[in-house]
Recover the amino acids of this structure.
């Protein structure tokens, strides 16, 4: 079966760095997505990792280790607007996304 | 280039009624996916469609739920005889091909009273 695990909630301070971890056990793995979702809104794309390693995009970076079934999303220079849920999703055979429960990040001043 | 469009944004139905949710994919996208998000939970895959074809409906409840993506017009997710447990946000996503990033619409929030 498919299983995605990520912490339910995290709290961090404005200006700091936070790392959100995700572990997955899926079949037919095609890559790992991270989406951001503000309350009551649609998920918006942040990153897509297919190969092992770190992908950097501005303040956000994402890492993947396929052998360990592990990914993380790194957010630097946190801003208040980064308070949101961060969804880890594996892309499986047939292109369906299997989502974790999401990590609710609260950024405090 | 307009994004994925869904309507209605909010839908209220009484138990036993039918709900019809519409999704227009991004221009040039022929792959459509429906996901359901229950309150305080993650998104769950329901169905994957291409024009006139259901590719994968493994996440769709066997009864009362159906989906289509006709040659012309939007994709439709239809829920017959709604029950309170159907209250959720239903998101549609589209992609240009069968692999890679999926772009999400704003969702339809269904409330069953």
């Amino acid at each position: 079966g498919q299983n995605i695990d990520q912490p339910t909630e995290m709290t961090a301070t404005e200006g700091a760095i936070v790392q959100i971890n995700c572990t997955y056990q899926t079949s037919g793995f095609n890559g790992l997505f991270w989406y951001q979702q503000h309350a009551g809104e649609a998920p918006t794309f942040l990153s897509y990792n297919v190969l092992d390693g770190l992908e950097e995009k501005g303040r956000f970076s994402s890492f993947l280790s396929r052998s360990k079934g592990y990914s993380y999303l790194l957010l630097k220079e946190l801003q208040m607007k980064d308070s949101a849920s961060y969804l880890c999703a594996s892309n499986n055979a047939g292109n369906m996304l299997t989502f974790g429960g999401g990590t609710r990040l609260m950024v405090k001043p | 280039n307009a994004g994925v469009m869904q309507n209605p944004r909010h839908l209220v139905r009484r138990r036993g009624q039918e709900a019809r949710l519409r999704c227009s994919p991004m221009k040039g996208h022929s792959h459509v996916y429906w996901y359901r998000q229950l309150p305080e939970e993650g998104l769950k895959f329901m169905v994957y469609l291409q024009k006139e074809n259901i590719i994968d409906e493994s996440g769709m409840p066997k009864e009362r739920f159906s989906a289509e993506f006709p040659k012309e017009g939007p994709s439709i997710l239809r829920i017959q005889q709604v029950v309170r447990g159907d209250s959720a946000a239903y998101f549609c996503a589209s992609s240009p091909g069968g692999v890679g990033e999926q772009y999400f619409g704003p969702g339809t929030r269904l409330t069953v009273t």
Chain B has no helices and eleven strands.
